[in-house]
């Protein structure tokens, strides 16, 4: 290693010429991006800009939508994930996702967290308990639920349910965490509390967040990508994108101006 040079940061996720359609709607238009391992990336843009479509491409959730078609390349650690023969369930264990609203199963708190582990083949009760406790602690939920793990998960508050969804994803020990506007359904206080859960995850995971909250993007991310009409308009270090955007369209969006208005 040359003197004064830090360790190389590897590309974790990469898209090349990525297109996504939902029926006749062209949601992503030739997106090419390289996202570094261990970084937190925020995707910002107006509704319908392609933020969620891009996020879902990274663990092939579009496979669940019969209207969806994808073309192009998405690579995880340099390996193509869009080809046939990919173990999609294994991919989703490596790339966990938390949605805008909690997606709980109508079972107990413990069984929600253990669900993916059991599907993966973890049957030992002690191993399940240890991994579930570790995940709940990372989601800052253990102290709240440790005495009622057998209670229905739906009894939790909305914020606690969202934390439980984070724990369920973390239990599988993923490499990448995707968050699709995770605080949109929460009040401001609960939203900030959930951000406090996400913040330390940035030390151990590659984190991608699609958000309509510009302040949240600025607080949480290392890199910000601005999307419009299915295209990446600008991508760069978050402080620079917010303070000195290089594209007028980004500047207009951040200022709340209609595109092209003086």
Short summary:
The chain has helices spanning 51-57, 88-94, 109-120, 125-138, 142-145, 158-171, 188-201, 214-220, 238-243, 248-255; strands spanning 11-22, 25-36, 40-44, 68-76, 79-80, 95-98, 176-180, 206-210, 223-228, 231-237. With 262 residues, the protein is of the alpha/beta class.
Explain what you see:
By secondary structure, the chain is an alpha/beta fold. The protein has one domain (11-255): P-loop containing nucleotide triphosphate hydrolases (Rossmann fold, 3-Layer(aba) Sandwich). It contains ten helices and ten strands. The protein has helices spanning 51-57, 88-94, 109-120, 125-138, 142-145, 158-171, 188-201, 214-220, 238-243, 248-255; strands spanning 11-22, 25-36, 40-44, 68-76, 79-80, 95-98, 176-180, 206-210, 223-228, 231-237. The strands form two sheets. It has a six-stranded mixed sheet, with helices on both faces. Strands 2-1-4-5 form a four-stranded antiparallel sheet, covered by helices on one side. Strand 9 (223-228) and strand 10 (231-237) form a beta hairpin. Residues 1-6 have low confidence and may be disordered.
Question: What descriptors fit this protein?
Answer:
single chain; 262 residues; alpha/beta; Rossmann fold; four-stranded antiparallel β-sheet; 10 helices; 10 strands; disordered N terminus
């Amino acid at each position: 290693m040359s003197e004064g040079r830090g360790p190389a940061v590897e590309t974790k996720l990469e898209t090349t010429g990525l297109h996504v359609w939902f029926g006749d709607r062209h949601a992503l238009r030739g997106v090419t991006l390289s996202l570094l391992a261990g970084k937190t990336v925020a995707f910002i843009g107006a509704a319908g800009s392609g933020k969620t479509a891009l996020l879902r491409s990274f663990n092939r959730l579009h496979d669940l939508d019969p209207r969806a078609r994808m073309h192009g390349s998405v690579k995880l650690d340099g390996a193509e994930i869009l080809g046939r023969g990919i173990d999609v369930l294994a991919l989703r264990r490596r790339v966990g996702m938390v949605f805008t609203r909690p997606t709980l199963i109508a079972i107990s708190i413990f069984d929600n967290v253990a669900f993916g582990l059991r599907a993966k083949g973890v049957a030992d009760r002690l191993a399940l308990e240890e991994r579930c406790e570790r995940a709940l602690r990372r989601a800052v939920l253990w102290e709240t639920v440790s005495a009622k793990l057998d209670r229905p998960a739906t009894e939790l508050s909305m914020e606690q349910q969202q934390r439980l969804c984070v724990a369920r994803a973390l239990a599988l020990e993923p490499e990448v965490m995707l968050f699709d506007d995770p605080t949109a359904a929460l009040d401001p206080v609960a939203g900030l509390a959930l951000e406090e859960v996400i913040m330390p995850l940035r030390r151990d995971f590659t984190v991608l967040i699609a958000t309509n909250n510009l302040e949240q993007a600025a607080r949480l991310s290392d890199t910000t990508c601005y999307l419009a009409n299915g295209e990446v308009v600008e991508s760069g270090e978050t402080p620079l994108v917010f303070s000195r955007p290089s594209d007028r369209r980004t500047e207009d969006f951040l200022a709340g101006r209609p595109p092209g208005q003086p």
